[in-house]
Design a protein that fits this description.
Elements: E1 3-12, E2 15-21, E3 27-31, H1 38-48, E4 71-78, E5 95-98, E6 103-105, E7 113-122, E8 128-132, E9 140-141, H2 144-148, E10 152-155, H3 170-178, H4 184-187, H5 189-203, H6 210-222, H7 236-239, E11 249-250, E12 253-254, H8 260-276, E13 280-283, H9 292-304, E14 309-313, H10 317-320, E15 328-330, E16 339-340, H11 346-351, E17 360-364, H12 367-382, E18 393-397, H13 403-412, E19 416-421, H14 426-429, H15 432-437, E20 441-444, H16 451-458, H17 461-474, H18 477-488, H19 501-510, H20 522-534, H21 543-556
Parallel strand pairs: 3-14, 3-15, 10-13, 13-14, 17-18, 17-19, 19-20
Antiparallel strand pairs: 1-2, 1-4, 4-7, 5-6, 5-7, 7-8, 8-9, 11-12, 15-16
Helix pairs in contact: 3-8, 12-20, 16-19, 17-18, 17-20, 18-19
Length: 558
């Protein structure tokens, strides 16, 4: 079962230098922002281990079109087919994998596992050349047929060829495996099948054409040539052994006409059959064309049924929640390797899968803070400022008690992190300095204030009145009056117009009563944020204004 231990890439497309070891897992899911290089990694693997001898390259395949430096892709492979490591093949070029240190050595010891390092080089002449390399001797070329034995195929948007039986296709490779050691090519099983089909066509006359043929025969006879045995059939030139024309059909409809999602599932079904006997499966954008439930089922099935090695990329939250943190490798633009996520992030992955596709994370203490951040983002857009998505920022619900853990875990995974939180919990306040020490930006309320307390303390009274009327619209005026009266006693009819410190404190308390909170939902938090942004210029230097400005500044400072 051939598997990739390590991969090196130099000067290939969006990657200048890359070096990665894949250890302890045979299911690798590469995630990251668009244009970070995820697809390039898969294509690099498919190229260096390609069964083709005539891959086409362009100047644009070189990093920044720098043709002065060659494209070099190097894959070190273990669990190799025995035929590749015979002495008359590449046995003299093997290297040793030390499992205790997970390093590859040219000096081989008895306890080492066997590895071959295959290298693809493309110079400015654009001609690809493949070698088996080590530092003990000069490199030796490796032929396409030998690379073919590694069974590496890439599933991408161009998969119609996977449904034909032509030489080098997935189906052809499976046919060879089914042949139990025989030589499919020498037997020409596809050619013989086509010849048999040709005979059957010849035996069936094209009767509706006979009248025309008889006229042609008579005219030919008048001109002095006998074509009495003329019949209509298909020319061997156009019919015989165009094996690429022999394709899978459902009844009379070719598979190439199926929907994108169905075609990908069928292609994956063919390719994963290779993995059962030692293939390496490469799937770009696993979820492409699939509904969420089919994408989740596919990810789960591939992971649990994997007998080879599978590399996928994804931008789908539905894929992430089906995988373990150990399967996830984060790729960033211009990074020289992947960042493997650790088990500590498992709960965060389940609760906030979308965040792992961002560049920067704003961890909010709860749904209220998430809503405020969304409203602030809308306010920035109205002012002509960059939106959070443009800046690669995701707002994450820290779930209250999990805020510290989530913030720390995201930071340790390499994300730029900001925490937006209250200051009314002593247990949280005591941990903020530790978060700041590891580079996490803390934006919080005044000491002992929740965000609701801060809003009712700092917002101009016209804004407070809007919040009261919003609650009335969500419930009833009677219920709001009753809640306030419970805290303050009897109220005058015009209490909504009476600004006082006591009234503000009462409203803050009423709005946070457990089970009857005013803003503990993202949509309610958004309205709260909209009102705060509306009155932002009317606030002087209150803490609330400082918080919102600090959030906006952090968003800008990419």
């Amino acid at each position: 079962m051939a598997k990739i231990h390590s991969l090196k890439i130099s000067n290939f497309r969006g990657i200048q230098e890359f070096d990665q070891i894949f250890e302890d897992t045979d299911f690798i899911c590469i995630i990251g922002r668009g244009d970070s290089g995820k697809t390039t990694i898969l294509e690099a693997i498919s190229y260096v281990l390609s069964p083709s001898w005539n891959l086409s390259f362009l100047d644009t395949d070189f990093h920044n079109c720098n043709i002065k430096s060659p494209i070099e892709i190097e894959a070190s492979i273990y669990d190799l087919p025995k035929g590749l490591i015979r002495e008359d093949k590449y046995g003299l070029y093997i290297r040793g994998l030390d499992r205790t240190t997970n390093t590859v050595h040219d000096e081989i010891k008895d306890e080492h596992d066997t590895i071959l390092t295959i290298k693809l080089c493309v110079e400015r002449d654009l001609e690809p050349k493949w070698y088996v390399v080590n530092t003990r001797q000069e490199a030796i070329e490796i032929k396409a047929r030998d690379r073919e034995s590694l069974n590496v195929f890439l599933i991408s948007d161009h998969i119609d060829k996977h449904f034909s039986w032509n030489y080098g296709s997935l189906l052809y490779s499976l046919l060879k495996q089914e042949d139990n050691g025989g030589d499919v090519k020498e037997k020409n099983v596809l050619i013989e099948s086509l010849r048999e089909a040709k005979v059957k066509i010849d035996d069936n006359s094209f009767g509706h054409l006979d009248a025309v043929i008889e006229k042609v025969k008579k005219n030919a006879s008048d001109l002095g040539i006998d074509i009495a045995n003329t019949s209509t059939t298909i020319d061997f030139r156009d019919f015989l052994i165009k094996d690429s024309k022999v394709c899978l059909h459902e009844e009379k409809v070719p598979f190439r006409l199926k929907g994108k999602g169905s075609k990908r599932l069928i292609s994956i079904a063919i390719q994963t059959e290779h993995a059962k006997s030692g293939g390496i499966v490469l799937i770009d954008e696993l979820e492409h064309g699939l509904e969420p439930d089919r994408a989740q089922h596919l990810a789960k099935t591939l992971k649990e049924g994997n007998l080879g090695q599978i590399f996928i990329t994804t931008h789908s939250r539905d894929i992430l929640v089906e995988l373990q943190a150990e399967n996830l490798f984060l790729m960033r633009q211009e990074a020289v390797g992947l960042k493997r996520l650790n088990d500590a992030l498992q709960g965060c992955i389940r609760n906030n899968p979308e965040a792992f596709f961002a560049k920067r994370i704003l961890v909010c203490e709860g749904a209220t803070e998430v809503g405020i951040c969304r409203a602030l983002n809308d306010h920035r857009i109205q002012q002509g400022k960059d939106n959070a998505t443009f800046k690669g920022i995701r707002f994450v619900d820290g779930g209250g008690a999990n805020l510290v853990k989530y913030s720390r875990n995201f930071k340790e995974a390499g994300y730029d992190v900001c925490a937006f939180c209250d200051s009314d919990e002593s247990s949280l306040n005591s941990k903020k300095s530790a978060l700041s020490e590891i580079g996490i930006r803390i934006i919080d309320c005044s000491l002992e204030n929740s965000i609701e307390m801060q809003v009712f303390e700092d917002l101009p009274w016209d804004g407070v009145r809007k919040l009261i009327l919003y609650r009335v619209s969500q419930k009833t005026e009677a219920s709001v009056n009753s809640s306030v009266e419970t805290q303050m006693g009897s109220l005058p009819n015009n209490w909504k117009d009476l600004d006082s410190v006591e009234m503000r404190k009462t409203l803050a308390k009423v709005s946070t009563i457990e089970g009857n909170e005013w803003f503990k939902r993202i949509d309610h938090g958004m309205f709260l944020g909209e009102v705060c942004c509306q009155y932002l210029d009317d606030m002087r230097e209150e803490k609330l204004k400082q918080e919102l400005n600090e959030l906006s500044t952090w968003i800008d400072n990419a």
